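Q: Hi! New to this. If I give you a protein sequence and the SMILES for flavin-adenine dinucleotide, can you show me the bound structure?
A: Yes, paste them in.
Q: Okay, here:
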Amino acid sequence: MKLTNVKDYMVYVELADGAPVNASLEILTRVSRLAPKSGEQVTAVIIGQNVSEGAQTAIAAGADKVICVEKEISQLEEYVQILTAIGKKYQPRVFFFPATQMGKDLVPVLSYKFDTASITDVTDIVEKAEGFDYVCSSYNGNILNEISYEAGFPQIVSVKSSSFKKELDSSRTGEIISEDIPVDRSLIKTELKETVKEIAEAVNLEEAQVVVAGGRGMGSKENFELVKELADVCKGVVGATRPAIESEWISRAHQVGQSGKTVAPKLYIACGISGATQHISGMSGSGYIVAINKDEDAPIFDIADVGIVGDAVKVIPLLIEAIKKEKAQ
Ligand SMILES: Cc1cc2nc3c(=O)[nH]c(=O)nc-3n(C[C@H](O)[C@H](O)[C@H](O)COP(=O)(O)OP(=O)(O)OC[C@H]3O[C@@H](n4cnc5c(N)ncnc54)[C@H](O)[C@@H]3O)c2cc1C
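A: Thanks. Here is the predicted structure of the protein with flavin-adenine dinucleotide bound:
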């Protein structure tokens, strides 16, 4: 089923604990900047229960319209049926998805349903005279590709979290459309027995407001515990460089960078991290960067808002103590 009468951009707004995930809101903000130039509109699609608050957030992030499907569903096949029906009815030119676990599951199935190709893990959109190209990486981040899409419509595109900045403007207004799309349960071939949260999933680096990350400079697994302790007192999530992960000081789910996760917390504390481009590319969107490194010429200081030159193993306990003291007051 290829769509021919296409216009407008559609963004799937995934919910986590009832609220839109940042990755979807970031896409809405970016796409809302593209739409007026081409005279097109941005439509968000939300599926779940009690979605009205999420719909308002989607409008604040850039949606002109929000299609709400109030339904308690949990299986991928149910989402696929609903999103296929919506795509068929509204005929978007591009259907964007966050490159979350769910987005990664949905995108290939939907491109099969619409008989188009998909472009995954996009990190940038390049505006062209006609339409745009998508930037995404391959070969473990060694190569950045700029891809033109000529596979028909709708273009099915997933965007990596933190690729764009989310901006919420609560004064924006938009249209809310309720759709009641039936799900044909006889077509569902799987049965959901149990949902088990993997440890890797529980590391929600992309949504974290504070990330405390450690690198090779922490020196040992025992010293790396200080990074975890600092993250704990800051109510943050632990990040790590590739060498820290390869040394097995922490699991791969914590890797920040080109071949890891892209993060954009309000505060990023880099401990014993040199500032290699492959690491910086995953955290340079952070709001405020604090770096602790014993080498005053370390490149991480070039992007840090505050730099502390010193031994991280000595500095971190002092920081932990100071934060605890501040909290106790
Ligand atoms: C294709 C590819 C993809 C990659 N993807 C990633 C990725 O996703 N994420 C990633 O992080 N890396 C990635 N890398 C690796 C990257 O190139 C760097 O090697 C890595 O980021 C460096 O990690 P680091 O800062 O922990 O270690 P180093 O570069 O060795 O830096 C350690 C730093 O600690 C400082 N230090 C030492 N002792 C102390 C101390 N006691 N106190 C304070 N500071 C101290 C040193 O001065 C130094 O600056 C990738 C590489 C390639 C080729």
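A: Residues 22-38 form the longest helix (17 residues). Let me know if you'd like me to explain how to read the tokens.
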